[in-house]
Amino acid sequence: MADGTETKRQAKREYTQLLRLHEQLLGQFSRARDELLAPGTDDLVKKIKARTGSTPDLTGVKTSVEEALRALKLSQSRLQNAISEADDASFEVEGVANMPAYLQRFLSERAAQPGFSYEVTQDEVRGWIICWKEFTNRGGTVRGYGQICERPYAWLDD
Length: 158
What we know:
Elements: H1 2-37, H2 39-52, H3 59-86, H4 101-110, E1 116-123, E2 127-135, E3 142-149
Antiparallel strand pairs: 1-2, 2-3
């Protein structure tokens, strides 16, 4: 059983790495598209035409960059779907039967990560409360911490 969960963690880690790569490529292609569509590029093409009489054809390049952006976005969407399918949607906290889906999703995405710890309590006004901490790999230093409430602004109604 532990080997299966480790395999799922590794797959999720690899999918996440691919998503980061997609984000980097999307940024680079977006910058390239912006440069191609910039007024300075049009001015440069006009200057070349005025000096040489020939017009550089950038339409093929522009089309290819747009196609690459679309393909990356489609691939990114498929990767995100694969990650969400790989996640265990039925994540349950012991003793908590009616936790809202967004709180369950928060815990299911992070609970398997090394160094992540949490505690779930219930408040009469704010509902379910998740208090969490994330430690570095060495275990001694807190990387992040926080508190998420089911109804964070409920006390304002009083």
